[in-house]
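Entry:
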Amino acid sequence: TKIEAGKFYLLDGFLGCAMQSVETGAGKTAEVILNIEQAEYETDQIDTSQTFAKGTLIYWDDDVNNKRFTETATNNRLAGRVTAKKENNVIWFILGPQV
């Protein structure tokens, strides 16, 4: 398993931003700090085929091939709301509460 600092992950039911990088071998585990604070974040970890307009609800697509934010609600976890998008496919968003 490879966790990269600054990327978002769904771990043990919590969606947040990894604060450090961790890599483990097969059958091994390690701890990682996951920032789940309800705050504004910036990321390029998105489905670039979608619009992500200001105010749009976004969802976490935890499919093993995706691991990114999407506008598609079906089979995905509500993650937050877009506050801005830049031309280079970077969004700012408010992470929703972790309940």
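The mean pLDDT is 96.
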